[in-house]
Amino acid sequence: MELLDWLKENYQWRNVKFVNEALIETDHGQKRLRYWSDKALLDWHITWRDECSVTPYMLADRMIRNKDQEAAIEWKDGWVTVHDEVDQQLNVVTVERKVAQMIGAMIGYGLETATEVRKVSSKEPQFRSLYSQLPYVKEKHKTYIRSLLQESEYRMNKAKALKKQVTEEKLPVIDPFESTDQAKKVYDVMIWFGTKHYPEEGYSSLRTFLGKWFDEYGKDSVIRLVTEIVDHDKVSRDQALYLLIECLQPYELDHLTRVTNREATNQEIEEALEQVTKDWERSKELVQVISSVIDEKKKVLPQ
Amino acid sequence: MMQAQSPYDSVLFYYDLYPQTIEDFGKIKKITTNHGVFALKETTMSRHQADDFVHALRKLTKLGYNKAIPILPNKYGEYTLSTGTNTYYLMPWVERVEYTARESQEQKLASQLGVIHRLTVKTQPFVKDHVEEAYNQLLQRWEMRQLELKRFADQAEQKTYMSPFELTFITHAFMLDRMAEVAKEHLKKWYETCLEKEKYRTVLCHGRVNRSHSFFTADNEPLLLNFERAGIDTPSRDLASFCRYSFKHAYWVEEEVLQWFVNYERHLPLLEEEKHLMCAYLNFPEPIAFAVDSYLKNKGSAREFEHVQRLEKRLTSMRRVQRLTQKLIVVEQQAQQEMQADQ
C-alpha cells in the first residue's frame, strides 16, 4: 500500500496529495509528516508535546490522532506522525510571554519526567586547545586571542563559582531549541514546532536560541523573554542559575578553535575572529540580562 | 488558512474546523463548515468536572448505551477543551423534529433514565461513617434552610405592611414547614432502612434529564445530551431532578406521572428506601428557598410582581408535589399490603 492511501485510511481524509516528501495537502489543510525509527524517541516526543501546552492559546505541534486515536501509524520499518503545518510568523513583540511560557513548560516537563531515551549532554568549551595553536597565529591576532583566552578562564572560574551556589542537581531533558522560527501562529493559537532530535540535558540549545533572539529582536525583547522564563512557576532560581552558567561558559571560541586546528587561511581566521567578537559581545549582554533578571527576582522574593 | 473571525476559531482549530458561519444559541454555537454542521457547547465545567463528564459518557458507550448524542474528539484525541474560563466540547448538530408519538416525551425519558440506571447500578456496602456523614450533612443543610425560611416569615410578620411577596409566603409558611418536616422524615426512613439492610444502591446519574436536554429522532426515539452533571449517586436523586423539571409538561396529571414510574421501573424497580429518598428530595421546599433568596437579593430592583408570580408558581408546584408523593408511597404501601394478603 502506498503511504498516501495508508494515511487516507488512517486519518479518514477524502483527499491527500504530496506537496513534498514531508508535506501533504489534505481536506483539513496542509500537514507535516515526520518519520521515526526509534520508538522510545517517538514516545518521548509524543508525550512532551502533549504535556506542554496552555489551551487553547499555546501548544506544541502535537501529533494528530488517527481514527483509532493513535498518535503515530506504523509505516515500513518505523512510524509516521502527522502534524499541523502553519506558515504564519509571529509578531514577537506580543508573544514573548507565550514563547516564555512554552520554554518554561518544556523545562518543567523536562525536570519532572524521567525518561529512558538517549540524551545529548552539553560539551565543555573547547577554547583551551587554542593555547597550543597560538605560536602559529599571526602576531597581530595573538594579543587579541590571548586577551580572549584570559577572559575565557575568568568566565569559566565565574561559572564554577556559581555552580557551587546551586543546590538542585537535576537539569531538564528538553527538545533542543533550533531557531526563532519554531514559534508560529494560526488564529490566536501559538504553535511551537518541535524537532525530532534526541533530547538534550541542560540549557545548551536554549543559550543559542536566546542569542539568536537577541540578534533578531534586540535587547529589550530578550529582557522581556528572559524575565518571563525566569518568572515561570516551573523555573526555580537554581534552574535560572544553570541557564546563566551555560551562558557564561565561553563557547564563542569553539568556532575559532576549529578553524585554527585545520590549516586555515588568514582570511578565514580573520572572519572567525570577527564572528567571535560579535558573539562575545552578545554573550556578554545576554549574561548581564540574565543575571540582572535573577537579581530582580531575588529582590521581590519574600524574606 | 483563514484568519481569525471569532473567539471560537482558536477552539475550532483543535478540531481542524474552519467555520463558514457561527450562530449563537446561548451556550450552544451552531458551527457550519465544509465538513458538516456541528454544535459547540460552551460550559463552565472545571477540568475535574470535564473529566467526570467524559468518564460518564465513555462508561455508557462501553456498556452499549447508544441513546446519547456523541461527543466528538478533537484532532489530539481529547473530548473536552478547557481554557482558563470555559470548557468546550463538540457534538454533531441535530435538528429538532416534530414529536409525533402518542406516548409523552417524559414517559420515554423516564425509560431512558431506567436504562442508564439499570446498566450502571451497583450495590454498595453500607459504610456507616460515610453514609452517616452524608446523611447528617444533608439534614443539617435542610435544617439551616428551614431556619432561614422561618426567619424570613418572622421578620415579615413583624412588619405593619407586608410586601405582596411576603404576604404570599406567610400564607403558605405553615405548609412549607410541614413539607420540610415530611422531607426529613422520608430522609430518616431512607437512612434507617439502609442501616438495617447494610447496603444501598448507586447508579450513574445523568444529573438533569429533561425535555431540554434531549432530542427525539424522526422515529420519536429519544437521544440524551448534556451529561455535564453526571456522577455516581442514588437513583432517587436523578429521578427527583427529572420529576421536578418535568411535572409541568405533564400538567400535573397523576396518571401521567405514575406512568413515568411504571416506565422507569420496567428497567429498574425502585426499592422502598429509594422511594423514601426521592420523596424527601421532592418534598423539601428548596425551590421556595431559592425564590426567597432571589427576592432578598434583588429586593430593590422593583420587580415585586415577577417575584410574586414566581413564588406562586412554585407554591402551586409544591402543593402538587405533596399530593403526588403521598400517592407514590401509598401505592407502594398498598402493593405491600396486597402482597401480604396474597401470601
Can you tell me about this structure?
The complex is a heterodimer of chains A (303) and B (343). In chain A, the strands form three sheets. In chain A, strands 1-2-3-6-5 form a five-stranded antiparallel beta sheet. In chain A, strands 4-10-9 form a three-stranded mixed beta sheet, with helices on one face. Helix content of chain A is 52%, strand content 15%. Chain A has 303 residues and is α+β, with helices and mostly antiparallel strands. Chain B has 343 residues and is α+β, with helices and mostly antiparallel strands. Chain B folds into two domains: 9-92, Phosphorylase Kinase, domain 1 (2-Layer Sandwich); 105-333, Alpha-Beta Complex (Aminoglycoside 3'-phosphotransferase, Chain: A, domain 2). Chain B has helices at residues 9-13, 47-62, 105-120, 128-157, 164-197, 235-246, 254-267, 272-283, 286-297, 304-342, and strands at residues 21-25, 28-33, 36-43, 81-82, 87-92, 122-125, 199-205, 214-216, 222-224, 231-233. In chain B, the strands form three sheets. Chain B has a five-stranded antiparallel beta sheet with strand order 1-2-3-5-4, with no helix packed on it. In chain B, a hairpin with a 5-residue loop joins strand 8 (214-216) and strand 9. In chain B, helix 5 (164-197) packs parallel to helix 10. Chain B is globular, with a radius of gyration of 23 Å. The A-B interface holds A 27-29, 50, 55-57, 62-65, 69, 71, 86, 88, 186-189 and B 1, 3-4, 9-11, 13-14, 16, 18, 35, 73, 75-77, 81-83.
